[in-house]
Amino acid sequence: MTRSEREHQAKRIVQHYVNVANRQKKVTVNHFLQEQIPRPTIYSIIKKFEEFGVVGDKSRSGRPSKLSKRKLTRLKRLTDQKTGISLRQIAPKFDINISTLSRHLTAMGITYRKKKRAPKYTDKQLEEVPTRARRLYRTLLNGNFELVMDDEKYFLLHNESIPANRGFYTSDPSAAQPEVKFKRTQKFELKILVWIAISEKGISTPFFSKQQQAVTQKTYLNECTKARLVPFIEKYHNKKKVLFWPDLARSHYGLKVIEYLDENSIHFVPQQKNPQNCPQARPIETLWSILEQMVYAGGWQAKNINALRRRISKKINELDIKVVQTMFSDIRIQLRRIADNGPYGACSF
């Protein structure tokens, strides 16, 4: 029986003894004997109540704390809302064990948390992003728009940075193969650029490029916008209802690209109103992470660029459109959070 259960039982016995049995011990004893409560236990509880006037257990004094209130205040000042803190370095200052130090921090509600990835903003961006996010939020709220966005990402032949591939299991490290136990890197690794556009209706045909540099305006116009983006919009959307939210890359806002979008009556978010560096509001950024996990699952590695391209195409076709739709439903919420609390206020933690 736990302490709380024991105290609850004692309260029931005392309440019966005072309110029902009119302080007649035998009446109370006979009543609770029917519940299989031992006779000595019932008498002991009544005796304790009569002598000390209490029902539950008194608070235990326990072992005295190794840290005084003054030291606890100092400990809180050294650790709370701080980074770069090592309990191994702090413990000797208080002459206590690390486990004891950790227990005191937990009692004060201070726990260790791992940092989350988030964009780094300049002071100017921190000032401009909420305003731009609010404008875009109002545009989406007031208009019956079908949102479309695009982005590009580089993929390597292998990727040990995803969680499942960061480590390995072994009974004998010396027997493990080099490709298993080492995170191998080279100076200029082969990679492929992948571009896609997405909306709640689906995912466009991807564009692959072996080039090492960023997409140029000419490539973006011909291979992405003309060959894939506009056909994707015409297939799944009414162009008059579409609002295209491009990435802020320079090629995406090239003069010829803007002219082509205007010629095809495709509304887009103007460059001066596009929130800078806000992956937390763009579900395509999350989609890249999901696709990356799928491509490199099980420690998969490509032997060449063509194999990597086939693998990416296959995994794009396997993406669940319901996941994309769920992410799109949160865009307005995220934009509102950015507008009200700043870009860091919308980062998950």
Automatic annotation (TrEMBL):
Q: Where does the record locate the signal sequence feature?
A: none
Q: Which SUPFAM superfamilies match?
A: Homeodomain-like (SSF46689)
| Any one GO molecular-function label of the UniProt entry | nucleic acid binding
Give the matching Gene3D superfamilies. Answer: Homeodomain-like, Ribonuclease H-like superfamily/Ribonuclease H
State the protein's name. Answer: Uncharacterized protein
Q: What is the lineage of its organism?
A: Eukaryota, Metazoa, Spiralia, Gnathifera, Rotifera
